[in-house]
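Renewal narrative, Specific Aim 1. Our central claim is that a sequence can be written position by position from structural information alone. The example that follows is taken directly from our test logs and has not been curated for this report. It begins with the structure tokens describing the chain, in the order in which they were read.
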């Protein structure tokens, strides 16, 4: 894959996704988790992270693995942004880890998707 284009990362309405996640008691959150993971993989160009493996490990460890996912996905998202010369939030991995400690993973999804929306809109692009 040459590079992430505006069409390779999907823009999603944050309010609708949060409402759907709450109304479906987290089931839509699982779908959103897979969508975010796919977008991060396309942004990086290597197909990583693997949402299925991370979800499976999170279930097997009663959610503890999701703390690691919070940090690593934030880091992988930043890496993908930096590789494309886009602005990144260096606090994102730590912030999503702390949110996970308090059981606020949904806010992590919002933060990740917000960064991905900037790429999809083209507003995250630096001007030369």
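The sequence written for that structure reads:
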């Amino acid at each position: 894959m040459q590079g992430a284009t505006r069409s390779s990362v999907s823009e999603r309405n944050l309010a609708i996704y949060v409402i759907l996640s709450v109304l479906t008691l987290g089931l839509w959150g699982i779908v959103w988790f897979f969508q975010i993971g796919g977008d991060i993989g396309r942004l990086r160009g290597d197909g990583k992270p693997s949402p299925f493996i991370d979800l499976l490990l999170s279930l097997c460890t009663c959610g503890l693995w999701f703390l690691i996912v919070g940090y690593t996905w934030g880091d992988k998202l930043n890496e993908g942004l930096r590789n494309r010369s886009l602005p990144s939030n260096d606090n994102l991995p730590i912030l999503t880890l702390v949110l996970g400690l308090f059981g606020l993973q949904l806010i992590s999804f919002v933060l990740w998707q917000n960064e991905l929306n900037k790429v999809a809109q083209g507003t995250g692009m630096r001007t030369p």
